[in-house]
Amino acid sequence: MKCSRGRGTRAALGTGAAQQAAAATGGRAGALAESELGELFVKVVRAQQSQGNENEADDFAMRFLSRRGYDRRAAVTALEKLDALGGGAGGAQWLSTHPAPRDRAERMRRWATA
User: Fold this and answer.
1) Confidence of residue 1 (pLDDT cuts 50, 70, 90)
2) Taking a C-beta distance cutoff of 8 angstroms, is the pair 5, 56 a contact?
């Protein structure tokens, strides 16, 4: 799997730059860019990028465990424990910088059984 960190980071930074450029134009577009809605848009784009990075890290961890001969199911149970400690609260996942532990565990479970 190829790492997309550079491309995604540029996209996330570009979103902030686009917001600043729109704000500089003034008028309705500028007002919208400077509003809470504009800030929310930037946060959503950055959160989604960060979640993608976490998924890449999980994939790396699963490959690492496999290459070293460790039981990949341990990563699954670790995330399930993390989810239990957090009370299983999902919250607004589209604003979160990390995928929910429950979702990560399910994704990694598919890896572990493959």
Assistant:
1) very low
2) yes
Burial 73-95 (b: 16+ CB within 10 A, else e): eebbeebbeebeeeeeeeeeeee
Pairwise CA distance, residues 30 & 22, whole Å: 5
Q: How far apart are CA 63 and CA 61, in angstroms?
A: 5
Q: Which domain holds residue 107?
A: 5-113
The 10s digit of each residue's pLDDT in 34-66 is 676 667 777 777 777 788 888 899 999 999 999
Alpha-carbon dihedral 61, 65, 71, 76, rounded to 10 degrees? 0
Contact between 88 and 43 under an 8 Å Cβ cutoff? The reply is no
- Any idea what the Cα angle at residue 105 is, between residues 79 and 53, rounded to 5°? 90
Tell me the pTM: 0.59
99, 105, 89, 13: which is closest to 48 by C-alpha?
99
* CA nearest to 42, candidates 52, 56, 32: 32
pLDDT (0 to 100) of residue 58? 92
